[in-house]
């Protein structure tokens, strides 16, 4: 029976290839600076592919493995490990071009059909095998099950390799159309192709979810050989932004001691950025502020440094002092929802004191949150902060509505409870009333 279960697990392989990202939702991370960088990398590629950049989502997953994938329609998920492992931006850009190839090829929808088709002989073989086992022919039953499952996997992997080849071809076309080199993704493919001999335990997920072979690397090299952009390198400004993003990821995701060791004896701006974050996470507020202010003096128009200064104040209990750094950040990037939410959060921290003056502060915070939600309408933390703001204003029904939106964005049943409370006090026909009714109809009991 153990052998049967082991063989049946191959069926799960076909399902896992198409697993939605909801299972990884707890590892999604938001960062305005890195998201902006990924969008800047991908925007020319989207346009070259005939896609509307505003309709394609790019999300970050906190995972040190090198990987990127497409799921849920036009949504690209990038592991932080891909950014860290990429020695230059061109490598990430090449991977994004490949993933866009999966979107334009409709591979996600077709992959579901292919998996279903591949499973049919496996299911039939499993049924026949189980019948043979029950009839006393155990060896024949196991052979039927094993053979059927292996056939299913071979059929699906054949289809998957065809998808990867098509996406590779699209990636080359997109890089050519945007006058960029394919050398970055070729180098990555070359290194991952070497992992084919490794156990899956030691392989990068990209090597497992994107079947590799020396033939694919050869096809890439042949396709890029005559490109006039073969030797084009990333602009220095782009390389700098990439290194700053890497420093930020290391600073926030590694322990402070690891970050200090990694950037020991380095006086570059990315190294100082990483150390400023490490000081902050270590609880050394003054050292963190000194480090980030030194960088601001050198780069006064960098909104992310202002954001970090505001975040340090906010998260160390000095929300009111974080207002001005966040105001400056917003003035530099006025349509960035995460910066607007940061500014609103600091204003709400000041607004807890009450009084007429702070009533205005709370209302200003709510206005910023509404502006953020116009750009990022499913941002749960914005609704959570809005609930706090309305609570401080004494607007109980609106506070309950905002909480309902917060839980609804996460698909949680608590949304119903808060929506029911909100309906009792919201004006009928108001936008909030209509949205609350929608929540009640969409969230099951």
Describe the structure.
The chain is globular and about 70 Å long. Strand 3 (68-71) and strand 4 form a beta hairpin. With 445 residues, the chain is mostly helical. It contains 21 helices and four strands. It has a domain at 2-224. Strands 1-2-4-3 form a four-stranded mixed β-sheet.
Break the fold down into its secondary structure elements and pairings.
Blueprint: H1 2-17, E1 28-29, H2 32-48, E2 57-61, E3 68-71, E4 75-79, H3 80-85, H4 89-104, H5 107-134, H6 138-177, H7 183-193, H8 205-209, H9 214-224, H10 236-253, H11 256-262, H12 269-282, H13 285-298, H14 303-315, H15 323-332, H16 337-351, H17 356-375, H18 380-392, H19 396-409, H20 414-423, H21 431-442
Parallel strand pairs: 2-4
Antiparallel strand pairs: 1-2, 3-4
Helix pairs in contact: 1-5, 1-6, 2-4, 4-6, 4-7, 5-6, 6-9, 7-9, 10-12, 11-12, 12-13, 13-14, 14-15, 14-16, 15-16, 16-17, 16-18, 17-18, 18-19, 19-20, 19-21, 20-21
């Amino acid at each position: 029976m153990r052998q049967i279960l082991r063989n049946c697990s191959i069926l799960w392989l076909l399902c896992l290839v198409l697993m939605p990202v909801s299972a990884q939702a707890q590892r999604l991370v938001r960062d305005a600076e890195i998201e902006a960088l990924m969008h800047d990398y991908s925007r020319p590629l989207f346009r070259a592919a005939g896609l509307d950049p505003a309709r394609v989502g790019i999300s970050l997953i906190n995972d040190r493995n090198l990987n990127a994938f497409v799921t849920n329609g036009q949504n690209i998920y990038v592991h932080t490990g891909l950014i860290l492992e990429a020695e230059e931006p061109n490598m990430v850009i090449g991977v994004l071009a490949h993933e866009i190839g999966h979107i334009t090829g409709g591979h996600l929808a077709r992959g579901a059909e292919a998996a279903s088709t591949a499973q049919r002989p496996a299911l039939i073989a499993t049924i026949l095998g189980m019948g043979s086992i029950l009839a006393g022919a155990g060896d024949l039953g196991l052979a039927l099950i094993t053979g059927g499952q292996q056939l299913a996997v071979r059929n699906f992997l054949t289809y998957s390799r065809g998808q990867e080849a098509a996406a590779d071809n699209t990636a080359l076309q997109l890089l050519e159309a945007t006058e960029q080199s394919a050398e970055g993704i070729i180098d990555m493919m070359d290194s991952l192709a070497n992992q084919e001999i490794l156990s899956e335990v030691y392989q990068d997920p990209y090597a497992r979810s994107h079947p590799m072979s020396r033939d694919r690397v050869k096809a890439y090299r042949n396709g890029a050989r005559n490109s006039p952009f073969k030797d084009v390198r990333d602009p220095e400004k782009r390389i700098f932004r990439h290194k700053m993003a890497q420093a930020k990821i290391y600073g926030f995701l590694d322990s402070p001691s690891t970050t200090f060791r990694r950037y020991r004896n380095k006086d570059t701006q990315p190294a100082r950025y990483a150390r400023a974050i490490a000081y902050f996470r270590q609880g050394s507020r003054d050292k963190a502020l000194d480090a980030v202010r030194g960088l601001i003096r050198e780069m006064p128009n960098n909104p992310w440094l202002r954001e970090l200064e505001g975040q340090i104040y906010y998260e160390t209990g000095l929300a009111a002092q974080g207002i001005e750094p966040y105001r400056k950040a917003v003035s530099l990037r006025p349509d960035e929802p995460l910066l607007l939410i940061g500014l609103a959060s600091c204003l709400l921290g000041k607004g807890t004191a009450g009084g007429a003056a702070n009533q205005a502060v709370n209302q200003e915070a709510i206005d910023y949150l509404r502006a953020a939600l116009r750009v990022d309408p499913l941002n749960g933390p914005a609704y959570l902060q809005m609930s706090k703001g309305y609570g401080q204003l004494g607007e109980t029904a609106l506070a309950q509505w905002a909480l309902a939106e917060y839980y609804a964005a996460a698909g949680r049943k608590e949304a119903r409870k808060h929506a029911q409370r909100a309906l009792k006090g919201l004006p009928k026909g108001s936008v909030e009333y209509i949205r609350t009714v929608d929540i009640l109809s969409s969230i099951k009991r």
